[in-house]
Task: inverse folding
C-alpha cells in the first residue's frame, strides 16, 4: 500500500515539467502529492544521498516512508495518486512499458536541449534532429 504523501522533485525551470506538475496538482483532489521544485534558489530538501544533479538527471520522488523511486515509476505513482490509475496500468503492459521507458529515458537525456535551456544532446542527437538556422540564409 502506498504511503502518502508522495513528494515529487521536479525542475520548475523546465516548461514541460512545470506544466505537467501544475496539471497533476490540479488533479490531486485527495492532496496525495507534494511537489518540490529543485530549481528554486531556496530548495534544500533533497533526500539523503541525492544532490540536485541527481534529481536533474531523472525524475525522483519519495514516499512518506522514505523510499525513493525514479523515472517512469514516478509517473506511474503520480497517476495512481491523482486518480489516473488506468494510465499506470496501461503503461505496465509489456509493449507499452518498453516504449514508455525508452521514450522517457530519451526525454530525460535531452530535456534541456528540447526546452531550449542548454545543449545536453549527444553528437548523434545533434545530427539526427535538424535544427532551424540561427540566422536567415542569404
Result:
Amino acid at each position: 500500500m502506498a504511503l502518502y504523501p508522495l513528494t515529487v522533485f521536479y525542475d520548475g525551470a523546465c516548461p514541460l515539467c512545470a506544466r505537467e506538475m501544475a496539471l497533476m496538482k490540479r488533479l490531486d483532489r485527495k492532496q496525495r502529492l507534494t511537489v518540490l521544485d529543485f530549481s528554486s534558489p531556496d530548495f534544500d530538501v533533497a533526500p539523503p544521498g541525492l544532490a540536485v544533479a541527481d534529481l536533474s538527471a531523472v525524475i525522483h520522488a519519495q514516499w512518506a516512508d522514505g523510499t525513493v523511486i525514479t523515472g517512469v515509476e514516478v509517473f506511474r505513482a503520480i497517476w495512481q495518486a491523482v486518480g489516473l490509475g488506468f494510465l499506470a496500468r496501461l503503461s505496465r503492459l509489456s509493449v507499452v512499458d518498453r516504449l514508455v521507458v525508452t521514450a522517457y529515458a530519451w526525454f530525460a537525456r535531452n530535456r534541456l536541449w528540447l526546452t531550449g535551456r542548454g545543449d545536453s544532446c549527444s553528437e548523434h542527437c545533434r545530427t539526427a534532429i535538424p535544427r532551424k538556422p540561427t540566422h536567415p540564409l542569404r
